[in-house]
Amino acid sequence: MNKITTILLLFVALNSFGQGVRIDTLKVLLSPSFVDIQSESNNYPIVRTGDSRTDLLINNDIKNKLTHNEYPEASMDSTIANWAAEGIVYLDFQVTYNKQGILSLNISAEGCGAYCTSWTEYLNYSTLTGKALYLGDVVDTKGGFKELVLKQKKAQYEKQRKELKKMLLDKESGLDSATYDWALEHYNDCETSSELTRFALHQNHLEIVESCYLPNAIKNLTPVFELKYQYSDIKKYLKIKN
Q1: Using an 8 Å Cβ cutoff, are 47 and 62 in contact?
Q2: Which residue from 109, 104, 108, 99 is spatially nearest to 31, judged by alpha carbons?
Q3: At how many degrees (to 10) do helices 52-66 and 76-85 cross?
């Protein structure tokens, strides 16, 4: 059976924001190789702005970013079907902002091969032009705002290092010095190489997404960050209305 025929399009409009831009849900058949661990979540977003050109720009960009441009010229249906069949066991999305001509959503997935890995793509668009939005399009990334984020990010990395050290000193944690050094090296590399690029808009706040990916053997030591800024607190830096 053709993979495309296994995809069912369900017209599920997300009306919680009520701004005219509709997000339909595409139900995707996940990888047949991992039926025993598949999630019941197999939802992929289709953006409907009412303008076909804008829809094409947004939906093609989502497709290519999620699949890392693996099938740049293929149709959306065939791309998602082929990509999902390669090992995707979980797929779902969330719309966090949909007003003032701006759409912010994230797509979470889990893929399995030798190991299973989960990740989230954070995507932002102008629903008026269809263009992808970057952090600098919605907030001034220079000066005061950048200093604020970098200061908080540094403090949170330092907090994570202290938590890791605390685990090392706790004989019941099971963390040995070699694993500690390995994880600490990743923490340091992540902080050095991180950039202010990934973000999500929410109803009342802007979130800067900071992630530090660790090898599967020490995945349980992955640091957690929270960089959220109320619009009312960063009003002077915002370039958008909210």
Answers
A1: yes
A2: 109
A3: 20
Query: If residue 38 lies in a helix (H) or strand (E), which one and from where to where?
Result: none
Assigned fold of 3-133 = Heat Shock Protein 90 (3.30.565)
Tokens of 99: 């007003």
Question: What are the tens digits of pLDDT across the range 157-195?
Answer: 999 999 999 999 999 999 999 999 999 999 999 999 999
What one-letter code names the amino acid at 207? E
Instruction: Indicate the residue type of 110.
Output: E
Report the alpha-carbon distance of residue 70 to residue 64 in Å, rounded. Answer: 7
Q: Report helix, strand or coil for 79.
A: helix
The residue length of the chain stands at 242
Q: Under a CB-based contact definition with an 8 Å cutoff, are residues 167 and 187 in contact?
A: no
In the chain, domain spans = 3-133, 138-237
Residue 200 vs residues 125, 175, 206, 239: alpha-carbon distances, Å: 11, 34, 6, 15
**Residue 193: which region, alpha, beta or left (left: phi > 0; alpha: psi -120 to 50)?**
alpha
Is this structure's pTM higher than 0.85?
A: yes
Q: What CA–CA distance (Å, rounded) separates 225 from 223?
A: 7
Within 8 A by CB and 6+ apart from 1, the residues are none
Alpha carbons 163 and 173: distance in angstroms, whole number: 12
Q: What is the pLDDT of residues 54-68, one digit of tens each?
A: 999 999 999 999 999
Please name which of 233, 238, 189, 231 lies closest in space to residue 214, comparing C-alpha atoms.
189
